[in-house]
Amino acid sequence: MIQTHNARPHRWLLLAGFLLILTAVQAHAQGCTQCLDSTRATPPAVQAAYRHAIYLLGGVGATLFLVGLYLLRREP
């Protein structure tokens, strides 16, 4: 069986991932107004804990997604 390696799809995936990261930066400031109002009513220490938890949950979700992609794309 002849295998050919074409790097072109990888470039498109890299470009798509980069564009998704850029759009996520703009979406960072958006949120529901109820959450914003209830968060503003809490002390600054709790607000900092919420921000830390959001980054932690986002990182865990992204890591699980990337590991899933790796497991699906690896050669058997």
Task: Note down, in words, how this protein is organized.
0% of the residues are buried. The longest helix is centred in the last third of the chain and has 30 residues, at 44-73. This protein has helices at residues 8-27, 33-40, 44-73. The model has no long low-confidence stretch (mean pLDDT 78). The protein is built from three helices and no strands. With 76 residues, it is mainly α. 76% of the residues lie in helices and 0% in strands.
Q: Quick check: average pLDDT?
A: 78
Q: Low-confidence segments, ≥5 residues, pLDDT <50? A: none
The secondary structure category is mainly alpha
Determine the strand fraction and express it as a percent band: under 5%
Oligomer: single chain
Helical proportion, percent range: over 70%
Order of helices and strands: HHH
Largest sheet: none
Spatial separation of the terminal alpha carbons: 15 Å
Instruction: Give the number of DSSP strands.
Output: 0
Could you say which overall geometry the principal axes of the C-alpha atoms support? Answer: elongated
Alpha plus pi helix count: 3
What is the alpha-carbon Rg in Å?
19 Å
